[in-house]
Amino acid sequence: MGLRSSVSVRSKPLFRRHLQAMKARKVFGVSLSLLLINLAAIMERADENLLPSVYKEVSEAFNAGPSDLGYLTFIRNFVQGLASPLAGVLVVNYDRPKVLAIGTFCWALSTAAVGGSQQFPQVALWRAVNGVGLAIVIPALQSFIADSYMDGVRGAGFGLLSLVGTLGGIGGGVVATIMAGQEFWGMPGWRCAFIMMATLSSLIGLLVFLFVVDPRKAVGVNHAAGYNLDRDELIEKGNARVSSVWFESWMATKAVIKVPTFQIIVLQGIVGSLPWTAMVFFTMWFELIGFDHNSTAALLSLFATGCAMGSFVGGLIADRMSQIYPPSGRIMCAQFSAFMGIPFSWFLLKVIPQSVSSYFTFAVTLLLMGLTISWNATAANGPMFAEVVPAKHRTMIYAFDRAFEGSFSSFAAPLVGILSEKMFGYDSRSIDPINGSPREAFALSRGLLSMMAIPFGLCCLFYTPLYKTFRRDRDNVRLGTLKEEEMI
């Protein structure tokens, strides 16, 4: 007895140190995974902002007007929307780090190919491939964050992802805009920017594949238990694995689409995404006004900084509001943010004189606009999606959200070009490559206003039914989760 007691006493400190070491390794692994996930988000947003930042140079290189450039954005967004459910199917069968790496390599390849394209149809083809890569990555990123944070702080988690992603968008946009006006080794700067971005994206994709750990693998995470059991059952089916994967994907699809909260958020998202898609013309608009590359990059960086800060602060505010008003706090934050898009769009595009002398007014307006109109995804959409479906369906709900929103919002960019050319008299042949064109800038601003102010108002209105449906859908999921845990 004495010997056994002695061994037991001696082993307790060792056991405690072992547990502490395991906990430290787990915390380090989670921190490293979140760091690399945020780096992937940075590169994803940088890649998204790359082409719009060099619209003017691409227009000159391929003799393309606003409607042609709008079609490039349309092609990528439309393909991205159609391919988004692919992310949900892949995540059923593979860990998310592998899925993220596949998507990252896909968009890196297409980005490099755009930089080397010699004809406009080639650019269009590779933009479509780029849409497939983003379709795989974005839903997987969102569900990764949803599984990594609890309900009460999920807004902050999505806000942080948006914050670092927007910083990547700033970096990508600024670098591309500055490089666009130069040449490197006899190659136009905008082409070098695409090749450089593709190289960095490939590196991040490799790091994600090697070092990121899916939160579903964490031992003792209750909300992932259901998913792991389903996945184990699929693996055990051997030869029937493929059919089982498709069956599981189909069941997840039906479960997601029939949720009323999902339907309403997608409806507002289809309309609410239109202004953000139209904003890809901001770079071209400022250059048409007469701002040089550096001034344009600075203005857009202020707007992106405002959006980055606003998305994070909006997520924090919504977390707090959801604690005070659990059923409606996030919805109120989203409606406030959508409504603020109306006065800011009107003031930016119609009230401020379109002249280089209005630089300071443009700068302040863009910063404040970004701070207030960027809350919806982090304050409401992302966190609410995570609460109205079981954990195992989270990637699928984010995938279908991107499918519907991306497909319909992709029409905004070509519509801006068509309105500018057909209704407001934009003529790409009369543009001065150095000094810009105030007349064409005015026409483009009217096209932008048409695709921003009205959709922002409709977006605000379409959030209203959530006051009735969100609480019911959330309670149904919580009740179902409790029943599953009791059965286990």
Provide a brief overview of the structure.
It is a multi-pass membrane protein. The protein is mostly helical and 488 residues long. The chain contains 21 helices and 2 strands.
Produce the secondary structure layout.
Layout: H1 2-53, H2 55-62, H3 66-83, H4 85-93, H5 96-116, H6 120-148, H7 154-180, E1 183-184, E2 187-188, H8 189-211, H9 225-236, H10 241-257, H11 260-278, H12 282-289, H13 293-324, H14 329-351, H15 359-373, H16 376-388, H17 394-409, H18 412-423, H19 438-450, H20 453-462, H21 466-487
Antiparallel strand pairs: 1-2
Subcellular location: Membrane
Family: Belongs to the major facilitator superfamily. Spinster (TC 2.A.1.49) family.
Domain Major facilitator superfamily (MFS) profile: 33-468
Describe the structure.
The chain has 488 residues and is mainly α. The protein has 21 helices and two strands. A two-stranded antiparallel sheet has the order 1-2. The longest helix is centred in the N-terminal third of the chain and has 52 residues, at 2-53. It starts with a helix and ends with a helix. The model is unreliable at 1-11, 17-29 and 219-242 (pLDDT under 50).
- CATH-defined superfamily: MFS general substrate transporter like domains
Write the element-wise H/E pattern from the N-terminal end onward. HHHHHHHEEHHHHHHHHHHHHHH
Distance between the termini: 39 Å
> What is the helix tally?
21
Q: What is the percentage of strand-forming residues? A: under 5%
Number of domain units: 1
- Give a count of the beta strands, DSSP E runs of length 2 or more: 2
The helical percent reads: over 70%
Rounded mean pLDDT score = 79
CATH level 1 name: Mainly Alpha
CATH architectural designation: Up-down Bundle
What is the multimeric organization of the chains shown? single chain
Q: State the CATH topology.
A: Growth Hormone, Chain: A
Q: What summary fits the major beta sheet?
A: 2 strands, antiparallel
Helix/strand class: mainly alpha
Keywords: Membrane, Transmembrane, Transmembrane helix, Transport
Membrane topology: Multi-pass membrane protein
Main location: membrane
Family: Belongs to the major facilitator superfamily. Spinster (TC 2.A.1.49) family.
